[in-house]
Task: inverse folding
């Protein structure tokens, strides 16, 4: 019985970390959309967008780590790991397109990434609270 409680607690913590990492990624992408508009209207928009790109990429790597940690202790489906890895690949393409100054591909991919991240956040289950004595 104690083993089951420990596994459930570990899985609950993993899901909380996964949800937090997904939320951070989604917020970073929203920040990127905001600073993309600032590129056109302020002198510091490029700096903010550049810093935001690094944060977004780091958040994508954190999402992969959180997905692995949520998957391994409970032995559940590896689907979140595949989604997170695919998202990191999209983030890599996004960085390359931004550096290459290809807004005709960079902007639509950014919109797609924000939508996918929002869906991932909505679909990430909340960690269940354990009742005392279970």
Result:
């Amino acid at each position: 019985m104690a083993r089951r409680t420990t596994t459930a607690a570990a899985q609950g913590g993993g899901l909380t970390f996964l949800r937090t990492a997904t939320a951070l990624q989604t917020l970073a992408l929203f920040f990127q959309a905001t600073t993309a508009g600032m590129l056109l209207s302020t002198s510091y928009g490029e700096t903010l967008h550049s810093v935001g790109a690094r944060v977004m990429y780091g958040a994508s790597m954190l999402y992969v780590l959180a997905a692995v940690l949520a998957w391994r202790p409970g032995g559940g489906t590896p689907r979140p790991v595949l989604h997170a890895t695919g998202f990191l690949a999209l983030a890599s393409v996004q960085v390359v397109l931004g550096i290459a100054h290809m807004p005709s591909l960079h902007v639509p991919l950014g919109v797609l990434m924000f939508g996918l991240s929002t869906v991932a956040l909505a679909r990430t289950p909340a960690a269940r609270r354990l009742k005392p004595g279970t």
